[in-house]
Specification:
With 209 residues, this protein is of the alpha/beta class. Helix content is 19%, strand content 23%. The strands form four sheets. It has a six-stranded parallel β-sheet with strand order 5-2-6-7-1-8, sandwiched between helices. Strand 6 (91-94), helix 3 and strand 7 (117-123) form a beta-alpha-beta unit. The radius of gyration is 17 Å and the shape is elongated. The termini are far apart. Bound molecules: adenosine-5'-diphosphate, magnesium ion and zinc ion.
Length: 209
């Protein structure tokens, strides 16, 4: 029976789930992966190893939902991990994809051409409100973008920004509780809350690794 007769498309699909921290990206990714499994599709899930919150072998949401996932150090490792299961896997999820290197962009296109449904979740902007790693390019190349908002922790309006809080000036501090807040356009400012704007020297975002 062909893929089409089974009700599956012949070509794949790239779906990007994006927005600020706490907007429900991981929840939505987990929801889609679970539904794919209910539909008896073979699912594989990955995350970069910069995100070591909660689990090495799962992705997790702030609302404590989880889905098993393999941690990969780079896109090259992701490709290697995927290769032996590429025959069976139909749906591929990637969380925290903003931390992956640019090689994820051609790999995503390749996987879609192989007929895979690729679900990519990641931050669209850094805490400096700049486009984050490969996510903007993946959005441009996708079949569908779901841009989620969080709730502004100052005023309750829909939040599109991730506000960095506290004393750390390192650009990438992953997932530490109390270090980030969702903020609306009005309540957000692109420097660390607690510092003056002149005190923060922004470093370039590294997407390696
Ligand atoms: P993301 O992956 O986008 O960071 P998660 O899926 O991990 O988001 O978490 C979303 C959940 O976070 C929400 O369902 C809610 O329970 C919780 N949450 C905590 N703070 C906020 C906030 N400011 N706005 C919206 N949801 C929040
Ligand atoms: Mg998440
Ligand atoms: Zn606000």
């Amino acid at each position: 029976m062909s893929a089409q007769q089974q009700g599956r498309p012949e070509v794949g699909r790239l779906e990007v789930i994006t927005g600020p921290m706490f907007s429900g990206k991981s929840e939505e990714l987990i929801r889609r992966l679970k539904r794919a499994r209910i539909a008896r599709q073979r699912v594989a899930c990955f995350k970069p190893d910069i995100d070591l919150r909660y689990h090495r072998s799962a992705i997790a949401s702030h609302s404590s939902q989880t889905h098993e996932a393999e941690t990969v150090a780079s896109v090259e490792r992701l490709r290697e991990a995927l290769a032996p299961q590429l025959g069976e896997v139909e749906v591929i999820g990637i969380d925290e994809a903003q931390f992956l290197d640019e090689a994820i962009i051609p790999l995503a296109v390749e996987l879609v051409h192989l007929g895979k449904r690729l679900l990519v979740a990641g931050l669209d902007t850094t805490f400096a409100a700049e486009p984050f790693g490969p996510i903007p390019a993946l959005m441009a190349l996708s079949d569908e973008v779901t841009k989620l908002s969080a709730v502004c922790m100052v005023c309750g309006a829909p939040a599109i920004h991730t506000q960095r809080l506290g004393q750390s000036q390192e650009l990438v501090v992953v997932g530490a509780a109390g270090l980030y807040e969702a903020r609306c356009r009005r309540c957000f400012h692109p420097w660390v809350d607690g510092f003056g704007s002149e005190q923060l020297e922004l470093l370039p975002v590294t997407t390696e690794g």
